[in-house]
Predict the structure.
Amino acid sequence: MQNRTYTADAEPGDTVTVAGWVHEIRDLGGIAFLIVRDTTGKIQVKFEKDDMDEDLVETGLGVNRESVVEITGDVKEEPRAPTDVEIVPTDVDVIAEAEPELPLDPSGKVDADLSTRLDNRTLDARKDDVEAVFKIRAEVLRAVRETFRDLGCSEINTPKIVATGTEGGTELFPITYFGEEAFMNQSPQLFKQLMVGSGLERVFEIGPIFRAEEHNTPRHLNEATSIDFESAFYDHHEAMDACEAVVTAAYEAVAENCGDELDALDIDFEVPEGDFPRLTYEEAIERINATGELDEMLVWGDDLPTEGEKALGEDVGTHYFITDWPSEIKPFYIMDQDDEELSTGFDMMHPRMELVSGGQREHRYDRLVEGFEQQGLDPEAFDYYTKMFKYGMPPHAGWGLGGERLIMTMLGLDNIREAVLFPRDRQRLSP
Ligand code: ATP
Ligand code: MG
């Protein structure tokens, strides 16, 4: 639209045309106000009934809330207006009338349950706090991309339709691919690894992963956004450094560029300070046991149960890594340490939950093929992958970060569905 002025840019003395949604209609008798909302904010439009053209007043005040309007007029200083300015209109156009009954109230005065909100996400995301989450999400992705670029990475895009899964069969979504069974990819793991052996060496991908998680939980989606990193000639320590840099940069960018959005969310927001502590798995289980929160003591080789992660998170109180996991509970493509009991795998945790899994990868062909067999996977089916390890595959390391979990924990959201526009879960396949 030509000559459109955003509400936030309207200055006293200007003649402007603003376009947006009717947020509120306040009729005080002789005088009435429309509050018009656009992506930058809201502005008051004043109608003085006795002094203004009758048709203009009728059009302006006869409109339903949430209709799209275009308003031309003079901007005046008005200390009593919410933004200290108001528009005295000369022209009001109703561009798209909204029905009088709305499925939810975008002004946020009346709460709607999550399911109603997700069914009507367009209206839901007209609310300041919801809009703020998605503006922050966009800023996080921008900052993450920029940090990856500073780290010397190339952005890649890999297939989401695959012949075989990486992490075993249970979490795979099967599809029909020209009459043959195929699957939605659970992770770009194998593809990003293949690319560290290419001329690119250091890569990242931001894309969807698909997991047929059986249960609805507040931190699992069936389609999530994975932020993946992989680098040739990196070990797991260097991969953790990169992870810390990316996550910290995301927080810093939000602190610097999303002040209004953080205000709209009204949350305590703190950029993580300094290095994330690195605890070994052994220390982690000792500290969990010491909290006394678990009914049964953890022993070496146990995976950390959700309550254990929570207890440890409260104890540590910041982002932290868990390193030196027993090899037997990390995936086969993770490299062992010299002491083969221990893997190079790591998790990066927010006090509330796991955000990242990573490690150095097995790049030695014979060991890799052995790993597939031990995992009960047919190495033949992964020949496209393993054979590249015969032609010069450098040592390499990397990680995968759950994009929605990053946003959820950053903004203190209760449910991961708040961090994705159109969530996919056991009950939800549309919109
Ligand atoms: P969890 O044990 O918490 O289910 P995971 O260990 O199975 O996660 P990984 O395979 O390690 O997950 O994936 C790397 C990261 O991707 C996780 O740390 C998490 O942030 C994110 N992630 C994995 N699965 C999901 C999911 N179903 N929904 C949202 N994020 C996910
Ligand atoms: Mg994991």
User: Anything to note?
Assistant: The chain has twelve helices and 16 strands. The mean pLDDT is 96. The first strand starts at residue 15 and ends at 27.
